[in-house]
C-alpha cells in the first residue's frame, strides 16, 4: 500500500452520519461503497504482507524447528500498527478519494 495513511487515525472515531450520506444521498449506499473499498484495501494489504513474509518461508516443514526471525517479527508488527482497512476506506470516502457509481441510478 503506497497510500499516505498519516491522516488516518489508528483507532475508532465517532462519525456524524450526515457526513457519510452527503455524496450519495443515501446512508446505506455510502456504507456499501465504504465496505467494498475496505475489502479491496484488505485484500491488497494481505497480498503485500504475504509477499513480504514469503521471503522467510522455509522449504523444511518440520514442527520441531521454529525459527524466530527478527525481520519477520518487525514486518508483522508494522502491519499490526497500520490503520485498519475500514478506517482507511472511511477516510478516503469522506475526502472524495473513492470513485463509485450506481448503474441503476444511471439508467433513470
Automatic annotation (TrEMBL):
EC category: transferase
One Pfam assignment: RNA_pol_Rpb6
EC number: 2.7.7.6
Any GO MF annotation of the entry: DNA binding
Catalysed conversion reaction: RNA(n) + a ribonucleoside 5'-triphosphate = RNA(n+1) + diphosphate
Coiled-coil stretches: none
Biological-process GO terms, alphabetical: DNA-templated transcription
Gene Ontology annotations for the cellular component aspect, listed alphabetically: DNA-directed RNA polymerase complex
Transmembrane domains' residue ranges: none
Classification via InterPro entries: Pol_omega/Rpo6/RPB6 (IPR006110), RPB6/omega-like_sf (IPR036161)
Keywords per UniProt: DNA-directed RNA polymerase, Transcription
UniProt superkingdom: Bacteria
Family in the record: Belongs to the RNA polymerase subunit omega family.
Entry protein name: DNA-directed RNA polymerase subunit omega
The organism of origin for this protein: Sphingobacterium lactis
Biological classification of the source: Bacteria, Pseudomonadati, Bacteroidota, Sphingobacteriia, Sphingobacteriales
Amino acid at each position: 500500500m503506497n497510500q499516505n495513511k498519516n491522516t488516518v487515525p489508528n483507532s475508532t472515531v465517532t462519525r456524524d452520519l450526515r457526513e457519510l450520506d452527503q455524496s450519495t444521498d443515501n446512508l446505506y449506499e455510502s456504507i456499501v461503497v465504504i465496505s467494498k473499498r475496505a475489502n479491496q484495501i484488505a485484500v491488497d494489504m494481505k497480498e503485500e504482507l504475504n509477499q513480504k513474509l514469503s521471503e522467510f518461508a522455509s522449504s523444511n516443514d518440520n514442527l520441531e524447528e521454529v525459527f524466530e526471525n527478527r525481520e519477520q517479527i518487525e514486518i508483522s508488527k508494522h502491519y499490526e500498527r497500520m490503520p485498519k482497512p475500514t478506517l482507511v476506506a472511511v477516510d478516503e470516502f469522506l475526502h472524495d478519494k473513492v470513485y463509485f457509481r450506481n448503474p441503476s441510478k444511471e439508467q433513470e
